[in-house]
Structures are given as C-alpha cells and as structure tokens.
C-alpha cells in the first residue's frame, strides 16, 4: 500500500501541464511525436493521464518544449515519480475501472444518475454480492470477492468524518423495483438507502415511472468535481469493454445541464425517502 499520493490524479495533473507547455510552444501532438520518434497516440495518452509517465518521458518533453526554468522541470519530474506509485486499489489486483476509482478517491463531490441499480457507493454487502455476478456473469469466484472488497472500500469516502464525499444521486424507480438477489436483500438495501440519504452530505432523489420522458433516458453517467482548481470536472460513462471520460468544458457543461433537469424532474429528497421506504415495505411483503 502506498502513501496518500493519488497516482491517478498526479498523472492527470501532469498531463494537463504537459499539454499546456505544448500549446504554449505552438506545437501539435503529431509534431511532438515526430521529434521524439514515438506515436502520436502516446503523446495523447500522456496528456490525458490514462497511462503512467516516466521521468524520462518528462525529461524528453521538457527538452522539446525548451523548459528553461529548472524548478518547473523538477516539479514535473516529481509529479512523474508520484504518478508511478500505487493507490490502495492496486492491492486488489487488476481492477478494470481503476482510473475511475482514483478519480473518485480524490473527488470532492460526485453526482450520479443511475437507472437500473443502486450505485456502488450506497450498496449493502448483500446487494453487491448479488448484483456483481449478475452484471458480470463470467466473473471467477476469487475475482468476485475482490470486486466486493473494492466496492466496500470505496464506500469509506462517503463515511469519512473528516473529508466526506458530497454525494448526490438521482435514481430511476426501476432500481428500487428490480429484485436483485431476493426480496429480503432488496428490503435491507432500500432501508440502507433511506438511512444514508439522511446524512447531511448525501442526497438521493427518485424519478418515478410516471415522470415520463426525462433527460437521463440516453444513459447513465456520473460527474466528478474536485477541490483543487487545477483539476477540471470529469464526466464518467461506464461501458462494457471500455469507459469514457469527458473533460472538455463544453461536454461537462452539457451533462451538468442534463443533471439539473433530472434533479428538477425527480421527487424532492423528503418525498424520495418516503417513496424508497414504501418500496422497501413492498419487498418486505414479497418476502413473506
């Protein structure tokens, strides 16, 4: 287990600085790639923070960009060193969404729209044990156990008394009605959801079926925001074989507007708690 340095965020910040230096030099990624005899895709991956950056890469790029201030070069080299450390999630082996976990671990606030299941940060162990093999049916038993452990470890950010994650969830009614595991598991899960929604930094709103058409019907997404002004907001869209991270200001703005519409269409926080409690009772009746 490494220190509290977050390698995902370090890579992202370093990539942003390298992009800034390239643009200040008036060079394209293709021109830089030609100078260093590497592929253009490598330069793009270094700048978007999706891969580790070696100190040698930083040294070579500083040479291309003619960075004369040694303090800047030293700072970038240190960021490259930090970016190669391991976050807590690496102890669990190869986690396919490790980039997202790194961002989530550092985020100050997270807005989620989910249509089919309870978000991982609010799942009970029983629900997680039932939903993970359901969504990834070919997952080996040992990998299932790791996924569950990682999911529960991620929840520490929500329960952190010193630096809790500001969490806002808009949840479609489908996630409350679908029986994952059993009616008993669902009752426990929805009771837990009501309990968590009463925390001052957690808001849960429900979109009932009778809301009709709404802004989230094109798919689920999350918006991560950070305390450090150097870290731009990120829209995360989960995929089956690969995930999408949107960081351009215009993209983030469009999804932010979509989320505001979802919040406006959903039940209020208090109405949602009553709605979830009633759904939990229906599962309790179904379990008899």
Automatic annotation (TrEMBL):
Alphabetical list of SUPFAM superfamilies matching this protein = lambda repressor-like DNA-binding domains (SSF47413)
Instruction: List, alphabetically, the InterPro entries matched.
Output: Cro/C1-type_HTH, DUF5753, Lambda_DNA-bd_dom_sf
- Which PROSITE patterns does the protein's record reference? HTH_CROC1
Any Pfam family from its record, for instance, is DUF5753
Please state every residue range assigned to the domain named HTH cro/C1-type. 18-72
Q: Which domain of life is it from?
A: Bacteria
Per the UniProt entry, the signal peptide is none
Which CDD domains did the record assign?
HTH_XRE (cd00093)
Protein known as: Helix-turn-helix domain-containing protein
What is the species of this protein?
Answer: Streptomyces decoyicus
